[in-house]
Amino acid sequence: MVLAITKAAMDAAPQVKEDQHFQQDEFAAQSQKVNAYWASHLTL
Q: Is the pLDDT assigned to residue 12 strictly greater than 80?
């Protein structure tokens, strides 16, 4: 996938490390945060 996004927007995006573990409720909260960020910064 290629994102048409500025470097500044990519740098400001929430970071999720590949070895980061979450409890189910923490995962849901983090997912909402990530989804909200990208929903406001991407146009389809």
A: yes
| φ, ψ dihedrals at 14, nearest 5° | -60, 140
Distance CA 26, CA 24 (A): 5
Distance of alpha carbon 42 from alpha carbon 20, whole angstroms: 25
Supply the DSSP string of 8-30, one letter for each residue.
HHHHHSPP--TT----HHHHHHH
Question: Could you tell me if 14 and 34 are in contact, meaning their C-beta atoms sit under 8 angstroms apart?
Answer: yes
Model pTM score: 0.68
| Tokens 């500044």, located at residue | 8
Residue type, 39: A
Distance CA 43, CA 33 (A): 17
